[in-house]
Each structure stands twice: as structure tokens, then as C-alpha cells.
From TrEMBL:
CC cofactor: Mg(2+)
Alphabetized SUPFAM superfamilies for the sequence: ADC synthase
GO molecular function, one term: isochorismate synthase activity
Membrane-spanning residues: none
UniProt keyword Metal-binding present: yes
Annotated function: Catalyzes the conversion of chorismate to isochorismate.
Name of the protein in question: Isochorismate synthase MenF
Amino acid sequence: MLTIERLSINEKLNEALSHIDEQGRFLSLTIDVHSINSIDYFASRTDLKGERFYWSSANGEITFVGLGYANQFYSTDSAERYQTIEQALEDQKQQMVHLQDEQITGTGAVYFGGFSFFNERHHSEWHDFPVNQFVLPKRLLTVKNDEQYLSLNLWIEPSDSLDDVSTMIQAELDQINAVQPIEKNTMNFTQINDELTYDQWESLINNAVEEITDGKLDKVVLAREVEALFEEQIPVEQVLNALLEQQERSYIFVMENNNQAFIGATPERLVEVNRGELQSACLAGTTSRGQTVDEDEWKALELLKDDKNLEEHQYVVKMIKDSVSPLCDTLSIPSQPMIRKLSKIQHLFTPVSGSLKESVTIFDALKALHPTPALGGEPRQEAMNFIQRNEPLERGWYAAPIGWIDEELNGEFAVAIRSALLTGHKARLFAGCGIVSDSDPKAEYDETNLKFSPMLGALGGYIDDHE
């Protein structure tokens, strides 16, 4: 069992408490832990429902579980929301007292959050999710390179004694020791409703193709929404566990706010920054996986030479290159796409890497990249305007950046696609597709059905049940 005495941190705690001023400050300490299952830890604290998050990177290198929100950050200035959040995190940094002399990346004061697709919110469906939000977790489990760490970010008053703080820490260790395996239960929805009829979808796509043909747009990404209803409140833990089991090569995320949870399994990295090195990805162009190895390979080869998908992919490559080139001293982008295979879908994929200029941060990259043509369209502003005028749904945080960042502005953000908003007994699922000049409404409809499958599978059903 983990105890404070065994961890030998009392002496360091005493020193840290000497830095607590009369207003109080946050104390951050990180402890090595062992054999903690991340989903079990998440599920163990149902008392903190509404203040939990989970993140697992697509390559499996890092997993976060955040329980309880020690502090939260918002921006009311929609035009400067990236800069406002960056400044808020810098101000928070000044309030932190760290027990460790040297912090391991991904531990300590790590912030999790995201942004809405548009700068403004127009609909009440996302009532618990503001246009942007980041949280500092009170408890953060980090699983990294087979090592595990528990970070505690505690608000300390000047009146708190060493015994008071030691008691707080021991209480958290006792909670870790009491974690039990998650109980797996079968889920299935009782009803599923398409928020857009096929005729409405066909009209929307034809309208977009007409504007592209007229030269007003090069490409626009349009989304559909379906609503799945359950007899009882949807257990977030069960959905998350199903995604972890079924979507191994995806970013798995969930963020809870009050009575809502935003959850998904996205294949698409928007940007990662680690000590000034940038990684991004162009992911556009889609087909299904094959039933056999030979069929799977044939589908991949067909995708690599499909004009419509290659055109769609090239828009994304060009835009990402144009967006990050001014931010980087060096930039590397392969000349041809490769195939990225997921459990049910495969995509055209082109990786992007570069070295950021000295004064550039991950927030600059987020502002430059969002939304890419894979999520919005090209030209960017014209596509955004078309979506706002014509798409009959409120995107909220769908297709927007979600991820984590630390005090040194290292972090990673994915694009929140293949996702759902859970509210009580209702799940709203989102899926989109890129529209270009030769897009066919039925083919695009089928593609969105395919993209609904990760979340529908995690919820206990499949799109075949719906058709």
C-alpha cells in the first residue's frame, strides 16, 4: 500500500508549504504508482461524475485520467480565444508550487480541454460546454511508457498545516488502493432517429456541389447527426470501455461537464508539440476495410488512385502546409499519401513534421490549423460561412480541437470527430464528409454511415440497425 511515510515526501512538503502566501496557492506533487488500470480508475469515482476526463493517444504512448477539476479556464473573447486561454494558463503557472525539482512531461500541472468548432455558440443542445474550456485536474493518473504516475494539484490555504496536507494526500492514495475492476454491462439503444431525412441531405449536397461548380467553393465538409435513445441514463464508463476495446488505433477521449459528456474515438491528430518539434497529419479520403486480406488491400489500392479522394486529400495537404510553414524553421511533408487503417475504415494519410520558430507556441499552431479542409473546407472562410448558413445542426465541440497541454506548452490535440454528446438517456452522434465537384449524395450518405459505426458500436448497435 502506498503511504506518505514510504514516499518520504514530508520534508519536501514542509519546504513547499513555506511558499504558500496569504492568498493561498496550488501545490502540485507527483507520485510513482503501479498496477492501476486507467478505465477502472476513471469508473471508480462516480461521485465525481461531471468532473472527469480521459485521453488515450492513438499510438498508445500516453493515457490520462483526470478526476475532479481543481481549476477551470474559459475565454469570453471569441475572437482571441486561443491567446486568452494561453494567457490564463500562464497566469495559473505563477500560482503553482511544485514539489518536484524536475517535472516529467505529462505529469503535474497538465490541462485538458478543447474548443467549439465555431467561435460562437448558437444552440442550447451543448448547454454544459462553452466555446472553449480547459481544466486543471485535482487528480491526474498518467500512464506513459509502462510507467504510472499520480499527480495531485491541491489548493492550499496559508492556515493548512503539514498534517492537514499529509492527510489530503493519504486520502487520495487510499482511493487508489480501493479501485475495483469495472463491471461490464450490455448496452443497446431503444430508438435511433436521423435528424436529417435523405431528401434533405441530398438537397444539401447538391446545393454545395452547385456552389463548387460556380467557383464559390473548392470543397466543403458537411455533417449529419443521429440521435440514439436509451431506457436509462447512458453509462459513460461503459461507452468509454467499449471504445478502448474496439478502436485500438484511435485517440480515445471523454470530457464531462456537469450533466453532459463529450466522447469519441478519432483517428485524426491536429497537432502535437514536444519541445518545439511539431507533428501534424493530413487525413482525408475514406473507404471501408475489406472482409479478407486481399479485399482489404484491393480497397486500399483503389483509394490511392481514386481521383475524388485524392483531390479531397490534396486540399488538406496544401492548407496544412500553407498554415504551418510560416510558423516553422523547417517542414517535412511526403509527396504522396499512404494508407491509415482503422478497425472498420481506412484513410489517405500524409504526416507533417517541423521545427517551430522560437516564439511560436502550440496555441499559434491551433489557431492556424483549425479548421483544416478535412473539417471545414476551402477557401476556409467561405466554407465556414456555407456551413453556418446551410448545415442544420449545431456542431458544438464536434470536429474541433480537443487535447492536453502542460506548463511548458508541450501537448497534443486531436480533431473531435467520430464522436457523440451524451445527455442523460440520449446520445447525439456526428459524422461528416468532404464535398467536392463530383460528389454523389448517396455515396456521401453511405460514407457518413460508415463513420457513425465506431460510436454506434460502442453504444451497443450498428448503422445497419438504423437503415
